[in-house]
Amino acid sequence: MRYVHTNLVARDWRALADFYVPVFGCELLLPERDLRGAWLEDSAGLAAGARLRGAHLRLPGPPEADPQTWPTLELFQYDDPVEQTDPVADRLGFGHLAFRVEDVPGTLAALLRAGGGELGRVAHTTIPGVGELTVVYARDPEGNILELQSWA
């Protein structure tokens, strides 16, 4: 058994891919998906006529890992999505995507230039037995929460 992907339902999957590729070094994997049919409706409990479009982004991974086994971020866009409020860090359920980066303030600045948003402020702490952490929470262009972290 192995972890495969995390799905993120987007308002505009292409715009979100254009954010994740340069900011986090993700790689767009082809083919793009344009999916519909009874199998989709049945498997996901969706109404008749549901359609989704999108693609997978290969997440950055360790250089020694086999790229074919890296988990992906699946960006899908439904024709008629159900709206929700912007997530907050302490709500129940899925919380955020975390990226280990070399330079937290620099990556935050790149994220903001690419259309993301601030959520918290860069903070520093020591986690006993683990190390020194620099961390900040931010948002992608659609409001999803991201954690940027660096360990020393």
UniProtKB/TrEMBL annotation:
InterPro entries: Glyas_Bleomycin-R_OHBP_Dase, Glyas_Fos-R_dOase_dom, VOC_core. SUPFAM superfamilies: Glyoxalase/Bleomycin resistance protein/Dihydroxybiphenyl dioxygenase (SSF54593). It holds the Pfam family Glyoxalase. Residues 2-151 form the VOC domain. PROSITE patterns: VOC (PS51819). It comes from the Bacteria. This is Glyoxalase.
